[in-house]
Amino acid sequence: MGNMSLPEELRSSSAFERFQSMQQRAGSRTRLILGIAGVLIAAGLVWWLGGFGSSKPKTAPRPPVIVAEAVEQPVTMFERTIGTVVANSTVQVTSRVEGQLVSAAFKEGDFVKKGDLLFQLDPRPFQAALEQAIATQNKDAAQAAAAEHDAQRYAALVAQGAVSRSQADQYLANSKAMAASVAADEANVDAARLNLVYAQIRSPIDGKTGAITIQPGNIVPANGSNPLVTITQIQPIKVSFNLPQSDVPQIQEQMNKGLLAATIKVHDGAGPELHAPVTFIGNAVSDQTGTIEMRATYPNTDNALVPGQLVDVKVALKDLPKAIVVPHDAINVGPDNRFVYVVTGDNKADLRAVNVLYDDGVHAAISGKVKAGDRVVTEGQLRLTPDVEVTIAKAHAAGGKPRQ
Question: Which CATH superfamily is domain 79-86+232-319 in?
Fold first, then answer.
C-alpha cells in the first residue's frame, strides 16, 4: 500500500487526504490489538511455566470425627412404658332399707376404716317394726303352747276311747300350725332387727370417701341407683400397664424367679422413684395392640399415687453381666445390618457389623467385633468410607452406664 502511486491531480485532492487519514487510523488499531494479544500470550506462558505446569494434585483433607471409648460393664435391660394408677377397690355405698337420712358421720374426702359409721337413717320406724314383730311372736308362741297341750290331751282321750281319732288329729294339726307360725314370727323378728341394723350405714372397706351425693334430710330408697357416697381403696393401690408380647418369655422367667418388679415415677413429675412388685399378669395377649396387661401393687402409705394418674413404668427383664457399651449415636443402620465405625491405631475408619442387644436411647449394649477400649465414631460418620484416614476432632469419655 505504501508503493502505490496516484496521479498528481488526485494527490492534491481532498479525497486523497481522507484516504491517507483512514490508512493511518487502521494501522494504529492493528498495532494496538497485536500488542494486547502479545501481552496476554506472555502472561499465559509465565503462569504455565511458573505454576500450573509444574504443580502436583493436592491431597483431600482427612475428615474430622468425634469418638468415644467402648467399655465393658454389666447392663440391666429395662422395658419402659406408660401406666395408669387404678384403685385396688371401689365401692358405691347405697342404703339397704328405705328411710329418712338423718346424719352423715364423716366429712367428704375423709379416710374411713371398714365398719366405720357413714350415715344414720331415722331408726324409729325400724325399732317400732321390731317391737311389733316381737309382740306377734310372743302371741303366737302362747297360742302354740295351748295348741300343743290340747293335742296331747286329745291324744290321751283317743287312747281311752273317749273321742274319735279325727278330733285328735284336728288338734294335732292345729298345734303344728301354731308351731310353724312361731317359727315365721322368729324370722320376722330377725328381719326387723336386721333392718334396724341397716339403719346405720357403715363402710364396707378401708378407703377414701368421695362427695356425698344425697344430703341428710332426704328420703333414700332401698338399693337406689344413685350411691350415697363412693369409697375408693388406695392403700394399697395398683398400677396397670402393658408390655409387648415379645417380652412374654422374659416376663415369665422373671416372674418364676420372683424378681419381677416395676419402678414407677409420676409422669412429667419430679417425685422419687417408687418400687412395687408385679402381682398380676394378664391371661391373654390383646389381638388389637399385641400387648399383655400387667399390674404392680404399691402400699401407697404416703398417698403418692392417686387413681387415674399417669405414671412412667420400667420393668427389669434381663441382666447382661458383661456387655460392650457404646453411645447410642455410634450405631448406624445399614441396608442389611447395623454397624459402627472403629478408629484403628493408624487412624483409619474400620466398619464393623454389630448386633444391638439393648438400646435406651443414650447408650447401647452390643455384640460383635467390638471390644472394650475400641474408639467408636459418634459424629462424622456420613463422611466416612472403610479404610479412610480420619482426624480425631474430639474424644469423649468412656461409653458410660446405660440409663436406669
Answer: Efflux pump adaptor protein, beta barrel domain (2.40.30.170)
